[in-house]
UniProtKB/TrEMBL annotation:
The keyword Hydrolase applies. Pathway: Glycan metabolism; pectin degradation; 2-dehydro-3-deoxy-D-gluconate from pectin: step 1/5. It comes from Linum trigynum. One of its GO terms (molecular function) is pectinesterase activity. Residues 144-289 form the Pectinesterase catalytic domain. Keywords: Aspartyl esterase, Cell wall, Hydrolase, Secreted. CDD domains: PMEI-like_3. The lineage of its organism: Eukaryota, Viridiplantae, Streptophyta, Embryophyta, Tracheophyta. InterPro entries: Invertase/methylesterase_inhib, Pectin_lyas_fold, Pectin_lyase_fold/virulence, Pectinesterase_cat, Pectinesterase_inhib_dom. GO terms for biological process: cell wall modification. This is Pectinesterase.
Length: 307
């Protein structure tokens, strides 16, 4: 697992470096008139770098020997540096509030901006087009791709549908997934920005899998669905990992999608069922269930981190 741990760490550190570069660029173009947005971005991206470094540390948790020790030492030092950067941003925010309160007033605009669809049930950063799709029934939506196991769509599997997406697609790109249990691991890669899954209800359209830590998979490799690209939306979908409690970490859904929305979705598993890894995410009318303890948590609404 040490080799796979190194591969996972390489991917996450690459993403963390991208966030650090974005943070530097955000500081370079800082405008006091829109200072609150810049600060929100900086905090989101710097917090994400800390998260990704922690993922790297976890990936080497069971690695013995000098290499594993050295890697953990380096990651600890880099984590401290990221914490210092966050502290500097907080200090910067306080200074701005004293000199120009209107430019850096702390706020969390979770809901609002829904006049175009007659609803304020989603964050202000959700676009009018996205709002309309979220408020519409599947019969009223013209999807870009339809997935159906009975052959009534363009594809029978979700992965085949994703593979067919070209380079110049419009956003949001809507994939309507008809009722059925889809036994496949689905990964929305970094470049697939603005993908939307619409199902026939979380009990009817379900994506299932059973990868787990006990069988030799790193936790980051167990999700039935993993979303790495920003702007992802899921509506009326079910996600599950059926490995059971003996599998230890069994993630049903992992997401590091910035500005993502999850509406009327269900997440079923046993441990680490839903892993909202990083960035701004909004959950409404969602359920996380853990059958092994006969417990569930309803999310209505919930935001992991949002401006």
């Amino acid at each position: 697992m040490a080799k796979r741990g190194l591969e996972i760490c390489d991917m996450k550190i690459h993403t963390a470096m991208n966030d650090l570069n974005r943070s530097v660029a955000e500081i370079d173009k800082f405008d006091p008139a829109t200072g609150d947005k810049s600060i929100d971005n900086l905090k989101t991206w710097l917090e994400a770098t800390l998260t990704f470094q922690e993922v790297c540390v976890d990936a080497f948790a069971n690695t013995t020997g000098p290499d594993g020790h050295k890697m953990r030492e380096i990651l600890t030092l880099s984590g401290m540096a990221a914490c210092n950067c966050l502290a500097m941003v907080d200090g910067w925010t306080r200074i701005m509030q004293k000199t120009n309160p209107s430019a850096a007033a702390p706020h969390r605009r979770l809901l609002g901006g829904g006049a175009s669809t007659g609803t304020n049930d989603f964050p202000g950063w959700v676009t009018p087009t996205q709002r309309k799709l979220l408020a519409s029934a599947p019969a009223d939506i013209k999807p870009d791709i339809t997935v159906a196991q009975d052959g009534s769509g363009q594809f029978k599997t979700i992965n085949d549908a994703i593979k067919s997406i070209g380079a110049n697609y419009k956003v949001p790109f809507v994939i309507y997934i008809k009722a059925g249990v889809y036994n496949e691991q689905v990964i929305i890669r970094n470049e697939l920005v603005g993908i939307m899954f619409i199902g026939d209800g979380p009990n009817n359209t379900r994506i299932t899998g059973n990868k787990n830590y006990r069988d030799g998979f790193q936790t980051q490799d167990t999700p039935t669905v993993a979303v790495l690209a920003p702007g992802f939306i899921a509506k009326d979908m079910g996600f599950e990992n059926t490995a059971g409690p003996e599998g230890f970490q069994v993630v049903a859904f992992l997401t590091q999608s910035d500005y993502s929305v999850y509406y009327n979705c269900q997440f079923h598993g046993y441990q680490d069922t839903l892993c909202p890894l990083a960035y701004r995410q909004f959950y409404r009318d969602c359920v996380i269930s853990v059958p092994s303890t006969l417990s569930s948590v309803s999310l209505a609404p919930f935001s992991r981190t949002a401006p």
